[in-house]
């Protein structure tokens, strides 16, 4: 199956499980054509097929509850129940039981593509070395959340740049037009429950965000509370594209399970509510894009942290970690770099076929 046929098949499968926003889907297709990095982010369903074909040996590695759609822009910040700023993996829409190698190779491949698109300034081999080093150290240490308080000062300075300025953030959200069509009852209820007070007056808008989830319904509730704006988002949740790829008749999202079991400081506002992922939106509670990061950042250290955070998530699969460590010890030096290059080559060819 080529990329265009796979896309048509996946989107038909998706339409049976949630309502599709056609305008957003067209925007997604345009972004897929625009550049290779966006194409990769948008097509996890295709990655699953290419992964089995091009990394057959790595696909036999020990299985953990994995992120699935991991990449260098799937990291963000939130506030924990103590109000502390936390950094980590931001989205688990595609969580599924997969070989641990899938997340590492996809993260490394995304770093390769980000480097080729001038989003990162580091040698690809060094990027892969940093990811593996961070992952192995994270497993060995037993994991630790990235709380950006008295520790990780360098990471706090990196992710809290001027481009996440509150004024800019709220101006952008406040510019969204109130929705004219009917909001699904379950989404509306989930948003209302997530607000800090009952009967708080708010307006609901459509929100276009992300790349991989474009085409699914996404709503944001905006309200003024105690003298300032607040926001909550509800995004439609569907099973992982791995269910589509496997041809299984049933499938459940693993979003809640992977968040609960990971070594993590939870976001108290993140809830799953009858088919919707609900979260708080704020300048300090959102995904961190590479373009937001300050110049002169230590990219080796940043990618090492991404590897460590991947270990934090995989450590939730406690019974499999000994197998993962043994498998890692058998891997030759440079294995991740080699696998990432293979997947980048396959993805680039897929992108060219899509653009034709």
Spell out the key features of this protein.
4-stranded antiparallel beta sheet, 5-stranded antiparallel beta sheet, 356 residues, alpha+beta, single chain
Query: What structural category do the secondary elements indicate?
Result: alpha+beta
Helix content: 40-55%
Low-pLDDT parts are none
Biggest β-sheet, characterized?
Answer: 5 strands, antiparallel
Number of strands: 11
What number of structural domains do the residues give?
A: 1
Principal-axes geometry comes out as globular
What proportion strand?
A: 5-15%
In round numbers, the mean pLDDT is: 93
Distance between the termini: 16 Å
| Number of distinct helices | 14
Task: Please trace the helix and strand order, writing H or E for each element.
Answer: HHHHEEEEHHEHHHEEEHHEEEHHH
Any idea what the radius of gyration is? 20 Å
Quaternary state of this entry equals single chain
Q: In which order are the strands of the major sheet placed?
A: 6-7-8-10-9
